[in-house]
Amino acid sequence: LKVRRLFATSALGLLCGRAWDKPCSPSLATHRASPYSEGAMDAEACNVAESNCESTSQDPALMLREQEITRDVPAMLDAMNRASSEVNTLETQLSESQESYRLLFESWSKLYGELRAKDGSAIERARPYFDASQRLSAASQSVQAAVREFSAAASQHMHAKSELRAIEECLGYGAHKLTLDSDQQDGLSRCTVRVLKCQQERDLRERDYAVALREYQEAQEALDARRSQVGDSTIRRALPRWTKLQRHQQRLEEEQSRISKLVERVKLAKSAYGNSLRELDRISTAVHAARREHAESKAMSAMSA
Question: What is d(CA 270, CA 279) in angstroms, rounded to the nearest whole number?
Answer without folding.
Answer: 14
